[in-house]
Design a protein that fits this description.
The complex is a heterodimer of chains A (492) and B (98). With 492 residues, chain A is mainly α. Chain A has one domain. Chain A contains 22 helices and no strands. The radius of gyration of chain A is 22 Å and the shape is globular. Chain B is 80% helix and 0% strand. Chain B has one domain: Helix Hairpins, CATH 1.10.287. Chain B is mostly helical. The N and C termini of chain B lie far apart (51 Å). In chain B, helix 1 runs antiparallel to helix 2 and helix 2 runs antiparallel to helix 3. Chain B contains 3 helices and no strands. Classes of the chains: A mainly alpha (492), B mainly alpha (98). At the A-B interface, helix 8, helix 9 and helix 12 of A face helix 1, helix 2 and helix 3 of B.
């Protein structure tokens, strides 16, 4: 365009409320660092400052949700020149992300206390990671999706190497960094190719373009789409792009691993669903078989390899690969399965944070040894921790009357209705296999002789596990309210 | 004309990706990531030129900024590793496995 045309462009619609939660998180991260420098407050106060930012962001999300539902006060649902989508999808994503951030901060309490002068950095990084993945979830433009992905991922690379005095932490950081930035480069090359093919960065624009014209040579667009899928399945640890996850989850400090794993999965799936369902529904015939294959491979590889692990963190990492596969089956049904995907993600993210909180309590918040044998007889040493961990594991395994069952049933029935029966059969078989690995941990905790003395679990960890147990059981018996809320989490 | 730039970018991206898979020095692997990001920039610019749209050029700035941020974090991590063990080879970082 020429300069004369450029001066006639209408200024974009600005909706500060639309990005208020992210603004609060970003400003909160900066404030936490400044407060630390200026006043040197106690570490508890720093943690509370981080918690206050998360709570403020959550309150603003509720306010924004009410505005979106009523439709008043929101002049457009695509403010900032179509960069941001104000929709139920983004609102629900923020609820889940902020819940994970709050629980993650609680679970990391002990680590914050041990972090010395660097406590503020850790809290700030957690807030920034939340803001990044939140931007990714509300983005209506592929470039903003990339920026959100990178803000979140780069924060997580630093968190992975946070305890730099200990060797394993920097090993985890370099592995996460090299493979993560590789995946990001693949993702952004996909963005560039989609732009080359369609002339659009905006998700709506890509959709309209593919809807409006018959593309005779879709090669560039399909290659771009494939790279987008590879980049994002990498972030959500779906097989065959999962190889980094066990090493990173094992080496990164236990106090934040649950937060890292959960928040990257939520952000990655939010981006993936938005891109596949909102931008490329017209190419579903091309991407559905690929996603089905990735889902099936993830479920099988994750479940089988989890069984042979004797380190609880690697076990949880491989079970996370299987869960990524389960959630991907929900993506197969296109827009129909969005509610079930969100239900699954919300439940699993809370369980994941709580499970790693237990790991941090048993093997120390910054340690990296977490052999399964450490959990022998945990029921006698720490009855409360063992009982809550057992419920969480049963919920992850998905036995009836836990939320995990409702979640699995939801995504499987969607995939079945969409005509992907074979993936559902693979998925059901894989969940049976996966169930044994959760039982194995429970048996170790309850049947084996106690091994050594464990320190008392910190109060924060007990709160986190209690919340996860309530979520697992409550939404297992009465899934209605959460399913209803997730049912309105649809992209524009 | 711009097709050739797109092909050059694809070649650069492939070289970068292969480098990540083949090379074992963390610094070289990191440079390969940067090569991939620059291939993305070349694609964006030439596609924007072919489409007659400024969006491609604009997006390049965002990719550049992200690449710079990655350099800061990546070099810091590599330096931390090097101080710890006097090596930047990822093959010697193999304590985590199972």
């Amino acid at each position: 365009m020429t300069l004369a045309q450029a001066t006639m462009i209408d200024p974009p619609v600005v909706s500060w409320l639309g990005i208020a939660p992210e603004l609060v998180l970003g400003v909160g991260a900066a404030l936490v660092l400044l407060i630390e420098v200026q006043w040197k407050p106690s570490r508890t106060a720093i943690a509370w400052a981080g918690g206050a930012a998360v709570i403020a962001a959550a309150l603003l999300s509720v306010l924004l949700h009410a505005r979106i539902e009523s439709g008043d006060g929101i002049s457009t649902f695509l403010p900032f020149a179509g960069m941001i989508a104000l929709d139920g999808f983004g609102v629900f994503a923020r609820y889940v992300l902020l819940a994970v951030a709050g629980l993650g901060l609680l679970a990391a309490q002990r680590m914050v206390q041990e972090a010395g002068t660097r406590a503020a950095e850790m809290v700030a990084l957690m807030l920034l990671a939340t803001a990044g993945f939140s931007l990714m979830a509300i983005s209506a433009n592929l470039i903003l999706t990339f920026l959100g992905l990178e803000i979140g991922s780069i924060s997580l690379y630093v968190l992975a190497g946070y305890v730099r005095e200990r060797g394993n932490s920097d090993e985890a950081a370099i592995k996460y960094f090299l493979l993560g930035s590789f995946a990001s480069a693949v993702f952004v090359y996909g963005v560039a190719l989609v732009f080359a093919g369609t002339g659009n960065f905006s998700i709506q624009g890509v959709h309209d373009y593919l809807d409006g014209v018959v593309v005779f040579e879709p090669g560039v667009i399909l290659l771009g789409l494939a790279l987008l899928v590879v980049g994002l399945t990498f972030k959500v640890t779906a097989a065959p792009f999962h190889s980094w996850a066990p090493d990173v989850y094992q080496g990164a400090p236990a106090g934040v691993v649950g937060f890292m794993a959960a928040i990257a999965k939520i952000g990655g799936f939010a981006g993936l669903v938005r891109i596949l369902v909102s931008a490329f529904p017209d190419l579903a015939g091309d991407w559905a078989p690929v996603v089905a294959a990735i889902a099936a491979v993830s479920m099988v590889v994750g479940s089988v390899l989890a069984i042979v692990q004797d380190d609880i963190r690697r076990l949880l990492a491989y079970s996370g690969v299987a869960h990524a596969g389960f959630i991907l089956t929900g993506v197969l049904s296109g827009g129909e399965g969005t509610a079930e995907i969100w239900f699954y993600l919300a439940i699993y993210a809370v369980q994941l944070v709580a499970a790693f909180a237990v790991v941090a309590a048993v093997s120390g918040p910054s340690g990296s040894r977490s052999a399964l044998s450490d959990y022998a007889g945990l029921a006698q040493r720490q009855p409360f921790l063992a009982a809550t961990f057992a419920v969480i594991l049963l919920g992850m395994g998905g036995i009836p009357l836990t939320a995990g069952f409702v979640a699995k049933f939801g995504v499987f029935s969607d995939a079945w209705a969409a005509g992907h029966e074979w993936v559902v059969i693979v998925g059901v078989l894989a969940s049976v296999v996966a169930f044994f690995l959760y039982l194995r941990v429970i048996v170790t905790m309850y049947m084996d002789e106690p091994a050594g003395e464990a320190a008392a679990a910190p109060l924060g960890v007990r709160w986190v596990t209690s919340v996860a147990v309530v979520v697992t059981l409550l939404f297992g018996v009465f899934p209605g309210p959460l399913l209803d809320l997730a049912g309105r989490a649809l992209p524009l | 004309m711009t097709d050739w730039y797109m092909l050059l970018a694809a070649a650069l991206f492939t070289i970068g990706a292969m480098g990540i898979l083949v090379r074992r020095n963390a610094l070289v692997m990191f440079m390969c990531v940067e090569l991939m990001l620059n291939a993305v920039n070349l694609t964006l610019v030439s596609a924007g030129r072919a489409l007659g749209s400024l969006d491609g050029q604009l997006a390049t700035f965002f990719v550049l900024v992200v690449a710079a941020a990655e350099v800061v974090i990546g070099l810091a991590i590599i330096v931390a590793i090097f101080r710890h063990r006097d090596t930047a080879s990822v093959d010697e970082l193999s304590e985590l496995k199972g």
